[in-house]
Amino acid sequence: MTGLNPASLPPSLRKAIDEAVVTGDIPEPFVGDPRPLEELIRRIDAFNCEHSLAYFIRRAWPIIEPGRPLQWNWHIDTLCAYIEAVESGQITRLLLNIPPRSMKSSITSVFYPVWAWTRNPAKQFLTLSHEQGLALRDSLKSRNIIESPWFRERWPDLRLSGDQNEKAYYSNNANGHRNARGILSGMTGRGGDVLILDDPQDAEKAQSDVERQNVLDAFDNKLTSRLNDQSTGAIIIVQQRLHQLDLTGHCLAKEGQSWTHLAIPMEYDAPRFDAARDIGRPELNDPRRQVGELLWPERFPRKAVESLRIDLGSYGFAGQMQQDPSPRGGGILRKKWWRPWPQSKPLPPCEHLFSSWDTAFSTKDLQSVAYSARTDWGVFYDEQTDRYDLLLIDAWWGRVDYPELRRLALELARDPAKDYDRQLIERKASGQSLIQDLRRAQVRVYPYNPDRDKVSRAYAVQAMLEAGQVWYPEGRRWATQVIESVATFPNGAPPSADLTDTVTQALLYLRNNWWISAHPDDIDEEEDALADVASPAPLPPAIVRR
């Protein structure tokens, strides 16, 4: 076998050979190849790419991430090997559960379809995500690789069709195509040899039974039938775990189906997969042995992981980082997470004061014994944690009709002892009337438009409460009643759901920085009678509530 010495090559050609191209011998297919050296090196490079997804990723990386060095880790080799098993037909149903920012989308949705075309350009892909923009993003990155000079020099016979070359859909001259869609978009006439579902569920909406079921129904009723060949076609689902009944849980619970499941946690806890059993590659098993060892310490050091644990909360971390969404014990917003402000300590000066309302006064509400509720809050800066926190300063709840509710709201707004900056009110059928009446009375109102159901909103702010961002005055019975009522949600008796709504609204108001900006309605609603609503009211002097 003829040896090829890289030291004898010009620097430009040495770079082109790169890493595994030269290991001391020319690969067997190229022994005695009469082509010019530079062309031979490109062909060797292409040969190595076609026979290793990991090698292909190393070579194509600079095209999609110029100037950003590629960081490698053991789990990337494992991921690539499992996907190679899909390409070879060894696996036809693959579930990949890996923490976010671990290259799972780049590998499965960007590099894999292009690499597959270097081996079989006739292959057809349907790639989906919970949001079409994400599917288009990865599809565009794949197209950029295909249209790059590096790719064209190595696979000159593979070309994109000029009349079918868009971000959402493009095809090649061998009848291969890629179709990128949102998972809930129309699928008529769309199909593929491989279906890739990358982050099929939105992390913020996966706690909603309705939103979650919409994705499961789309998968069962529309997507599985999109395979060109039900016996040989493949489905890859890649996601961070979000709920016990997310798409991964749904597929694993199905009887009569065999899914290969690769789950890799951020912190090692126990063996989660068996590469020897799944793909005959025992050397690709998780190399970690100590509980708590990190997946990728160079990219996610301990300090960063601990910060994620705080930001995501215990349940979010268990699912998204550990790939193990465990059953929740107790309520969503637990009593132990509220922080008492000691009676012996003066209350903090608050930069912003507001009320958060949940209204119920329609005939249907009254017949169902629904409550209206209000919690009052102060926003203050916590120097120890270097963040803004919330302090619960008052609360009210009761079953009242609309005239009484309006009277109570106006009475609160006119109370000189409660010079609040805003009234935060959900813009629903009952709340809209109160918003309009308060504005006519020149009360500063911030309408709130919820984008998810009550349970999802509670989970959205769970991490804030668990992180100790919410305080209450110690020794106040009404505060204890609020906390206990909220802790029983979503299964508690009235007014649990009503008080919980006011609390989640308040936390979202803080988290999204709505308290320091004007509401869009203040600018857009010209029919509003208030001239001074068009700009945010100035923040009052620091106020201490005792």
Question: Which keywords apply here?
Answer:
about 550 residues, Nucleotidyltransferase, domain 5, 2 domains, 8-stranded mixed beta sheet, 7-stranded mixed beta sheet, 18 helices, elongated
Task: Explain this structure.
There is one protein chain. This protein has helices at residues 11-17, 37-50, 53-64, 74-88, 104-119, 132-146, 149-154, 209-223, 247-252, 275-279, 302-321, 363-367, 402-414, 429-440, 454-466, 477-487, 496-511, 521-524, and strands at 93-97, 124-129, 160-165, 169-172, 177-182, 194-198, 234-239, 260-263, 339-341, 352-358, 372-382, 387-398, 422-426, 445-448, 470-473. By secondary structure, it is of the alpha/beta class. It folds into two domains: 87-321, Rossmann fold (3-Layer(aba) Sandwich), CATH 3.40.50; 335-534, Nucleotidyltransferase, domain 5 (2-Layer Sandwich). An eight-stranded mixed sheet has the order 3-4-5-2-6-7-1-8, with helices on one face. It has a seven-stranded mixed sheet with strand order 9-15-12-11-10-13-14, sandwiched between helices. The radius of gyration is 29 Å and the shape is elongated. It starts with 10 loop residues before the first helix and ends in a 22-residue tail after the last helix. Residues 1-10, 18-25 and 523-546 have low confidence and may be disordered.
